[in-house]
Write a structure and sequence with these properties.
The protein is an alpha+beta fold. It is built from twelve helices and 19 strands. Helices cover about 35% and strands about 25% of the residues.
Length: about 450
């Protein structure tokens, strides 16, 4: 972790430059704001009253665009997960100005000094957000989770809910979450192990700003509560994906396995990191044993992510089974409609299917168009994230030109070696020959340019 006071406005000005470079929207057109304001006061007429159910939310402490709330009950040996998803479609009409703008954006872009929302704040952080300050409309998906972790969608309904608490990953206690939370997460994890699934969740470089305007660059491992909370979304997404596929409709998240050549390179990388990967063990099985808190294993997890083929969206196709290799299952995204455009349509389709109704034509039509829109939006968000981290890394090292640093080689490619500094949360590249992943080297910082967001290192030992 490294805190930057930013007295010379390197980060402040640099973030403004990033927004300009990637055309990050600064606000919404007046017509969109006006339509959102009118929609926020829309009277609820199609929602049953479920305010007596003890829903809570669990998110980063600073989050205000809350997509999900949950409660859990027992049903014999099974657990019933009631997962309330923000009913964004109640406020956003097909073809209205808010909808059109959402199609232009695709998803929310997050930066340390503020986000560029998919929807105006009056909806995303107000009327449609599942905040605990009053009743909110939601679509409740009920998923039955068996003792072995298998899931089945039991039903879905539009409802009014009232969250009891806004819980945070870094401070939540076991007493605050609904009974069955840990058990349910353990069941889902056990089912993943049996399927051979392997979600790679390495520590990520992250830039945050506190209330005093100070920025922090760090490697952030996932909190245990965050991992368990992700299991709730996974359970619901898997159950909905199965239901949509059976109904021959939907939009699915797919990802292929790394090819044979990539796996062979990963075996060499694991060996260089001093990791024991048995020859008869598949990559997914080995991934499941990795610990993100172990530096060598975390670096290898990053190598696995880079070796993957990337995920994308595809609509239902007759005779084609959509498959997500990391989940080892048919899978969809539908639990974050305030932040991802596609989720709003998947929620609408799942609500219809669960109630024996036909999927609206406008939703079915959207499934054929959403893939390229979402892929483009995700690519831009990834570029912004990388640029923000690059900026923070250069800001940390300005004025330290000529200084030497210990570093670990985490990857080798045609353009040089990717290195991770041992004493700072900085990942960069250097021209280094005859090095292997896992090797420790000494590098000299030749330049740190926050305007270009570029670092130059030379290997000296």
């Amino acid at each position: 972790m490294k805190t930057l006071r930013d007295p010379d406005r390197l980060l402040t000005d640099g973030l403004a430059a990033i927004r300009a470079q990637f055309k990050v929207p600064a606000g919404f057109p007046p017509a969109v704001d006006a339509a959102a304001t009118a929609a926020a006061s829309r009277v609820l007429t199609d929602h049953v009253d479920r305010t007596a159910m003890p829903f809570v939310t669990l998110d980063p402490a600073s989050s205000t665009d809350l997509d999900q709330a949950f409660t859990i009950e027992t049903a014999g040996a099974d657990l019933l997960l009631h997962y309330a998803i923000a009913d964004v479609a109640w406020f956003v009409a097909d073809g209205d100005p808010v909808d059109d703008e959402a199609w232009n954006r695709g998803e929310t872009i997050y930066l340390p000094d503020g986000k560029a929302g998919l929807y105006p704040r009056i909806l995303a952080e107000g009327a449609a957000s599942l905040l605990p300050d009053g009743p909110r409309p939601a679509v409740i998906f009920t998923t039955r989770v068996a003792p072995d972790g298998s899931v089945k969608l039991e039903g879905a309904e539009r409802a009014v809910i009232r969250s009891r608490a806004k819980l945070a990953y870094d401070s939540v206690t076991d007493a605050e979450v609904p009974a069955g939370f840990t058990d349910l997460a353990d069941r889902i994890a056990a089912a993943e192990d049996r399927r051979g699934a392997a979600r790679v969740d390495p520590p990520e470089q992250e830039v945050d700003r506190d209330g005093d305007g100070h920025y922090t660059l760090r490697f952030r491992p996932m909190e245990l509560s965050e991992t368990r909370n992700a299991a709730l979304s996974l359970a619901t997404n898997l159950a909905v994906a199965d239901a949509l596929y059976a109904a021959k409709t939907g939009l699915f998240r797919v990802m292929a396995d790394p090819d044979a050549a990539a796996v062979a390179r990963l075996r060499h990388t694991a060996q260089a990191f001093g990791l024991s990967w048995p020859q008869d063990q598949e990559l997914k099985q080995f991934e499941a044993t990795l610990d993100q808190r172990n530096p060598a294993q975390a670096a290898f997890m990053l190598a696995i992510r880079r070796a993957g083929n990337g995920a994308s969206y595809v609509p239902y196709q007759e005779g084609v089974k959509p498959w997500h290799s990391a989940m080892a299952a048919t899978y969809c995204h539908m639990t974050a409609p305030l932040r991802r455009l596609a989720d709003r349509y998947v929620v609408r389709a799942a609500l219809a299917v669960a109630n024996g109704q036909s999927v609206p034509d406008v939703v079915a039509s959207a499934f054929t168009r959403l893939g390229p829109v979402m892929d483009k939006a995700e690519a831009r968000s990834a570029q912004v994230d990388r640029a923000v981290v690059d900026l923070a890394e250069t800001a940390i090292l300005v004025g330290q030109e000529g200084k030497t640093f210990s570093a670990m080689v985490v990857d080798v490619g045609d353009t040089g070696a990717r290195i991770q500094l041992c004493d700072l949360p900085v990942v960069a590249r250097t021209i280094a020959h005859s090095v292997a992943p896992g090797e420790k080297i000494t590098v000299r910082l030749d330049s740190a340019d926050p305007v270009r967001r570029e670092l130059a290192f030379s290997r000296i030992a």
